[in-house]
Design goal:
18 strands; globular; 2 domains; Aspartate Aminotransferase, domain 2; 5-stranded antiparallel β-sheet; Aspartate Aminotransferase, domain 1; alpha/beta
Length: about 450
């Protein structure tokens, strides 16, 4: 079975002849702004493995960028979607009620760690839509116009979420952007000001939030502070719990809502069903949670969840949409969550994370280019540098390693504000043998390319 195979390149190099033809046709029909980073044309996928058009087997450590925590082609999920498809594909929820939407909303309200006893949920189609709707809900509740986001943040590619996203390569030539989006510094502890202890650095980053009130927007004009529990595109940087507790206190002091952007970190990726469960354990749970990606095993759906009083502040007609909460996606999501709970995917994420982190840490002793290892559960970043003392980023090395890995059957991707972080986002159904094979390929690539 493909799901149990190991990486194998039968064509010698990639792309093979069939893949090369499809990539050529892609170039003729699809805008080049949608980059073709990897010389791979997928034919089928199972578990953490894909077979390309030429019969090569590749291990996927990107998972559709965090969409496939459950893995490719889980039979139970396929059956759930097929059963729903036999009844109906679509029913706009503003027009007719369908059971899957209600059941999924009930399920998420029961497991999402947001403040409040009584919760409500609604659905959109993508992570960007979820983040934008979370902001709309916060503005409706607080009657305030502004939000605070952070350096390194990625929230999407709509006009509002491009403004919220830090890296402007994702928004080049697209302005002007919506007003009322102000930025503080995220606690990137590996690159905190030199000479600071961790405690001093956290205080420094907390002060950065407070400075927004002085320099950009008065606190009583701020509707929400939006935080990724673990920054994805920003470099797989966890938000330190002491900092989150301080931000939660700031929100409580000024009547600001705390939004957790769990688009990438949700659904067992970090060793909990949601990363903000760690916040809740520290008494700093969010008011609103937005999530997407792995919710439905590859079908497009996203969710926004908050306590009832927040949700009921929203004016009729301002949320919802044609495809939001599509029945096929809801059926898939319900089965995905059930499987994750029954098979303890969160526990598996912790096991995977321990193995990967231990291996990465061992490389610090072997390879001077390994600067930092960080993450939560099975969402782990490996930051490569030119020099450990100066911490000068090494994006060229990461690019070379990415291409070397794919030629040996491992798909990995970069991240980080400097493009010098290798992200680990493998499906959580990856076998131990596949995990070791991938680590071996990655280590060999670092050794060869540095």
């Amino acid at each position: 079975m493909l799901r149990e195979e190991l990486p194998k390149i039968v064509t010698g190099t990639l792309p093979g002849p069939k893949a090369a033809e499809w990539i050529k046709r892609r170039e003729a029909a699809v805008p080049s702004a949608i980059r073709c980073v990897y010389p791979v044309v997928i034919k089928r996928g199972e578990g953490a493995m894909i077979e390309d058009a030429d019969g090569n087997y590749l291990l996927d450590w990107v998972g559709g960028v965090g969409v496939l925590n459950i893995g490719y082609s889980r039979p139970e999920v396929i059956r759930a979607v097929q059963e729903q498809a036999e009844n109906y594909f679509h029913g706009m929820f503003n027009i007719v009620t369908h059971e899957g939407y209600v059941r999924l909303a009930e399920k998420l309200c029961g497991i999402v760690p947001v403040r409040g006893e009584k919760k409500k949920a609604f659905f959109a189609n993508s992570g960007a839509e979820a983040d934008e709707n979370a902001v709309k809900v916060a503005k409706a509740y607080t009657k305030r116009p502004n939000i605070i986001v952070f350096s390194g943040a990625f929230h999407g590619r709509t006009m509002l979420t491009m403004a919220m996203t830090s890296k402007k390569a994702y928004a080049y030539g697209m302005g002007p952007f919506p007003d009322g989006v102000y930025r503080a510094e995220f606690p990137y502890l590996y690159r905190s000001p030199k000479g600071m202890s961790e405690e001093e650095a956290i205080a420094y980053y907390v002060e950065s939030v407070e400075k927004v009130f002085e320099q950009a927007s008065p606190a009583d004009y701020v509707a929400a502070i939006v935080v990724e529990p673990l920054q994805g595109e920003g470099g797989f940087i966890p938000a330190p719990i002491p900092w989150i507790k301080a931000v939660r206190s700031i929100c409580d002091k000024y009547g600001i809502l705390l939004i957790a952007d769990e688009v990438q970190s949700g659904f067992c990726r970090t060793g909990r069903m949601f990363a903000s469960e760690y916040w809740k354990e520290a008494g700093a749970e969010p008011d609103i949670l937005s999530t997407a990606k792995s919710i439905a095993g590859g079908l497009p759906i996203s969710a926004i969840i908050a306590r009832e009083e927040i949700m009921e502040s929203v004016a009729a007609g301002t949320i919802g949409g044609t495809f939001c909460g599509n029945p096929l996606a809801c059926a898939s999501a319900l089965e995905v969550i059930s499987l994750m709970e029954k098979e303890d995917y969160a526990g598996r994420a912790r096991q995977i994370g321990e193995k990967v982190t231990a291996r990465y840490e061992s490389w610090k002793e072997k390879y001077p280019v390994v600067g930092d290892v960080r993450g939560m559960g099975a969402m782990i970043g490996l930051e490569l540098v030119k020099d450990r003392e100066t911490k000068e980023p090494n994006p060229a090395l990461v690019s070379a390693v990415v291409q070397q890995c794919v030629q040996n059957g491992l798909i990995i991707e970069n991240a980080g504000i400097y493009g010098n972080v290798i992200r680990f986002l493998a499906p959580l159904c990856i076998t131990d043998e596949q995990l070791e094979a991938g680590l071996d390929i990655l280590e060999a690539a670092i050794n060869q390319c540095m």
